[in-house]
Design brief:
Layout lengths: L1 H39 L8 H31 L6 H5 L2 H33 L11 H27 L6 H36 L13 H29 L4 H7 L2 H33 L10 H32 L4 H40 L2 H4 L3 H34 L1 H5 L2 H34 L7 H38 L17 H10 L15
Helix pairs in contact: 1-2, 1-4, 1-5, 4-5, 4-6, 4-7, 6-7, 6-9, 6-10, 7-8, 9-10, 9-11, 9-13, 11-13, 11-15, 11-16, 15-16
Length: 551
């Protein structure tokens, strides 16, 4: 009964609020345009007077209809806080979903508006021609004002709800999802914008053209980079600093934030994205270096300095983000007890990067072997093969990919092996590790089967004279290379999986003394943190695991 009531109230409140925001934004836009025309001495009655009246009628009608609907349903929702079910209303998941959705939508609208306005301000500061950019300035100002008011009010409501006492489950993590989502949006805007600005500096430094800020083709790039960097910094710092203050709070909010798997997921998500983009950009750096080293630069290629420095400077903000968030999650893991879900997030990050690095390594290594076999078959000399332009560029690209992928895999795989040495029983039975091993083994088996089938087909076709007289070794170069690399990966990871299963079987066959403890906790209690705290104080040789049950 109460759930149906809440779904109705908050759904209608959300829809009517959106309509109200639409009407108010356009009305404010018309008002600002009217004031501007009055200041400039423009006659607002002539010309498009009918169009202005029509817009005024439409948006005024939308606002007038939407306002009482929203006020009524929001008043009913707020009145529920004062009744006998007030505590249940404050802790409801539907209310948390409504607040989180409104905060997210108004924040996105505000970000878009501020980015556009800062772009115009930057162009004006550098003296660029803003006539082509400033057509909708009034609309962006109106959108910023309306979105800002909606965001500020609902943010105040959320903080008021938190001051009322503890919340749990969806009412706890849904608004937290908004905070980390906003922080992720901000850091994404910031890192990409800084990379674009640094790349713009490199382009200006390596060009032969006369650079005149305010009258060149770089003005739009400069304004875009500056606006996204400033807005990203503001959004990220505001939400991330709030989340850090929340994690350090001594009350229930700090306890929930510290034990939150969502917080750890956010940190590792930023680190994961930063690592992937860094790998991509560093691969381009390596390709530029090796291409220059092998003297395989195409005639129409950009200058070497630009090909080298552009991806290098673009990678810098992602490297900084990776270092910062990696250090942050490591420090929090050392300061606070790590729950089971947080440990799972940590493993997902490390094994996912290891899997990606291994995939890049396997692909690059197999391709290099295939290229080498092909060149030896054609020229009969591998060394002289590297002296020919069409092959050296391909080797440079593949070698860079292989080196970068191998570095990523070795770094993260070493961390996984360190965990295995520190806590063999837990790590060998971890689901994420098992998924990684089975994924590599499955992919390797598929690659072995496909490549072996191709090899057998080529051999039988040659023996039976099915196809023309093409060099058999050259035809078999690529499938044999895939077969060789995939077989090596299969053998190595199969040995690891066998060792894990063997140790697990040994631990099962040699049971020790088992003591069962039953811990009763209130609803919504952070049981993962309790288990982690007990586990951290156990002596060597002892283990603890949690088994959920319903009495």
């Amino acid at each position: 009964m109460q759930l149906a009531r809440r779904l109705y109230l908050y759904f209608i409140a959300a829809v009517s609020l959106f309509a109200l925001a639409l009407g108010l934004t356009n009305l404010l836009d018309l008002l600002i345009e009217t004031i501007r025309d009055a200041i400039q001495g423009t006659d607002v009655v002539t010309g498009d007077a009918d169009a202005i009246r029509r817009q005024l009628s439409i948006y005024a009608a939308i606002a007038i209809v939407a306002l009482p609907i929203w006020l009524l349903h929001w008043w009913l929702a707020e009145r529920g806080l004062d009744g006998g079910d007030g505590e249940e209303e404050r802790r409801s998941a539907v209310r948390a979903l409504y607040l989180s959705a409104v905060l997210s939508g108004s924040l996105i609208a505000g970000i878009v508006a501020v980015i556009r306005l800062v772009q115009l301000a930057t162009l004006w500061i550098v003296g660029a021609d803003t006539r082509l950019w400033s057509g909708d300035t009034e609309q962006w100002i109106a959108l910023l004002v309306v979105a800002g008011c909606i965001w500020a009010y609902h943010g105040w409501v959320r903080l008021r709800d938190l001051r009322g006492g503890p919340v749990d489950e969806e009412a706890d993590w849904l608004p937290r999802l908004y905070v980390y989502g906003a922080a992720f949006t901000g850091v994404t805007l910031l890192t990409f914008a800084v990379g674009d600005l640094l790349a713009l500096v490199v382009e200006i430094m390596t060009t032969d053209d006369n650079v005149i800020i305010g009258a060149g083709r770089w003005d739009g790039l400069l304004a875009s980079g500056v606006s996204r960097a400033l807005v990203g910094t503001a959004v990220w710092s505001a939400h991330w600093l709030y989340s850090m203050r929340l994690a350090d709070a001594p009350d229930w909010r700090g306890e929930h934030a510290r034990a939150s798997a969502l917080r750890r997921f956010y940190g590792y998500s930023v680190a994961f994205g930063a690592v992937l983009l860094t790998l991509l950009l560093v691969t381009r750096v390596g390709e530029a270096l090796l291409t220059e080293l092998f003297n395989a630069t195409p005639r129409d290629a950009e200058p070497f300095a630009r090909r080298l420095l552009d991806p290098a400077v673009r990678a810098l903000p992602f490297v900084v983000a990776w270092i910062y968030y990696r250090r942050q999650v490591l420090e929090e893991s050392a300061r606070f007890a790590e729950g089971n879900r947080q440990a799972t997030v940590r493993r997902v990050y490390v094994y996912a990067i290891a899997l990606i690095g291994l995939g890049l390594t396997g692909y690059g290594l197999a391709s290099l072997i295939a290229v080498a076999v092909d060149r030896v078959t054609v020229t009969g000399d591998l060394v002289s093969a590297f002296g020919r332009d069409p092959w050296r560029a391909e080797v440079a690209s593949l070698a860079s990919l292989t080196l970068v992928g191998a570095s990523a895999w070795l770094w993260h795989w070493a961390h996984a092996q360190d965990w295995l040495k520190a806590d063999p029983a837990t790590e060998r039975t971890a689901t994420v590790r098992r998924v990684y091993l089975f994924a590599v083994i499955a992919g390797s088996i598929v690659a072995v089967l496909v490549s072996l089938a191709i090899v057998m087909y080529r051999v039988f076709a040659e023996l039976l004279g099915v196809e023309g007289s093409v060099a058999l070794v050259q035809e078999l170069g690529e499938p044999l290379a895939v077969l060789l690399v995939a077989a090596g990966l299969l053998a190595y990871h199969a040995i690891l999986l066998r060792a894990d299963l063997g140790e697990r079987g040994a631990s099962i066959s040699e049971p020790g003394t088992t003591l069962q403890l039953v811990i009763s906790a209130p609803a919504g209690a952070n049981t993962d943190a309790i288990v982690a705290t007990i586990k951290s104080h156990l002596p060597t040789g002892y283990a603890v695991r949690s088994v959920s049950r319903l009495d």
